[in-house]
Amino acid sequence: MGKYILKRLGISVLTIWALATVCFFLLRSLPGNPFATEQLLKPEIQEKMMAYYGLDRPLFQQYLTYMGNLLKGDMGYSFKYVNRPVIQIIKTTFPISADLGLRSLAIGYPLGLFLGTLAARRRGKAADYICVLIAVLGVSVPSFVVGSLMQWVFGIKMGVLPIAQWKGFSYSIMPTITLAITTVASLARTMRASMLEVSGQDYMKTAKAKGLSEKEIVWHHQIRNALIPIITGLGPAVASTLMGSFIVEQLFAIPGIGKYFTESVQSLDYTTVLGLTVFFGIFLVSANFIVDILYGIIDPRIRVAD
Predict the structure, then answer these.
(1) 123 burial via Cβ count (<10 Å: 0-12, 13-18, 19+)
(2) Whether the model pTM is above 0.85
(3) DSSP string of 29-70?
């Protein structure tokens, strides 16, 4: 088990380094500079700003400096948000995105698993068709369409919920549901397919031959084994949801990490874009690392294969 963990840890570190490196050079390859969008700045002032932030130095020297600072936990200062360290932006915005993500996960995962299980258990019946229809619609309809419709119906027409902002529980209802719908839909489809696949396995037939009750077979054999593929995708799904949806945060004017990321990309704020990308990468890789370890504990065949 120790060798398995060390191998996964090494892969995780290399992945984060590769992500930071690729993003650094891709951002620097974009045309323009972070200060060219400021119409009031004269060219000579832009040159001074470039020199002040070290952007006039050779590219590889900039890379070594950034990676050295990153190892110390310093992601630099934002070009757009003056005198604001990227770390401070993350500390301010991530809790809001995580709050929204946790709310949506609390709704999405139980409901998605329930619908997927119900559809598999009622295969070919009305309940199955309804669950599949809900899943297809949830995956097919974009989040901004769902959110806009909810704003129009519940915010404008009925006036029962606030349209935007993040100032209390009532403000979180529509964005939470909007973000949870995608989780419900994708999870329901995956759970249904996994349940149906498990139902044809030999151990299911053996359990029935032993005379176990339907409840015992479903809970202790079918659902338990059907959850293994769900666990595989748990890391990326949870990480992405906790980081917030850029579209949902923009639509509902939520001051989360997605809002700053979008604005920073538009203004070529290198340090903020790179810092948020690296932070998301670390968060995602860490989640995958934990899931890999759990997966190895749940299914010892993974450790044997490695």
Answers:
(1) middle
(2) no
(3) TSSS-TTTT-TTS-HHHHHHHHHHTTTTS-HHHHHHHHHHHH
